[in-house]
Design brief:
By secondary structure, the protein is an alpha+beta fold. The chain is built from 4 helices and 7 strands; from the N terminus they run βααβββαβαββ.
């Protein structure tokens, strides 16, 4: 399978919703995704199976004053554990590398060990807890932070 990373489009909304519903107990609505796709301060990336032209994952990021906030990331269940989420995050770091002022932040369920390990491998560190953050079961969220990406100095 060849994965291509590209900007998400409105025509991706149905596939995004399908992945979202399979990934989260309290999925975002179609209008929430459409709103993020339309925002100039968001980065919305899709991972597409190039052989089948099928969306298999996505990443939604919002730009704030001091941070890029990972709002939503998901990979279709049949395509998990293949490095797709890592590839999306690494592409985000490439796109934002010139923005030395902003770090990266996200919330993740304290019980989501696989995601926490991925984020730690990508340089995120735990910085706090949001108590009762998730509305479906009042589970706490681990707040994670990564310092800004620094472009390598030119030789």
């Amino acid at each position: 399978m060849i994965i291509e990373l590209r900007k998400l489009k409105l025509r991706d909304l149905s596939a995004i919703e399908e992945i979202e519903r399979a990934s989260y107990p309290t999925p975002w609505s179609r209008s929430m995704f459409a709103g993020e796709l339309a925002k100039p301060s968001s980065i919305c990336l899709g991972a597409v199976d190039g052989e089948r032209d099928e969306l298999v994952g996505y990443l939604i990021i919002s730009r704030y004053v001091d941070a890029w906030h990972v709002m939503n990331i998901a990979v279709a269940p049949a395509h998990r554990r293949k490095g797709i989420a890592r590839a999306l995050m690494e592409r985000l770091f490439e796109i934002t590398a010139r923005d030395a002022r902003r770090g990266y932040t996200l919330e993740v369920r304290v019980s989501n060990d696989a995601a926490i390990r991925l984020y730690e491998a990508l340089g995120f560190r735990a910085r706090g807890i949001r108590r009762g953050y998730y509305t479906d079961n009042r589970e706490d969220a681990l707040i994670m932070w990564r310092d800004p990406v620094r472009e390598p100095a030119s030789a």
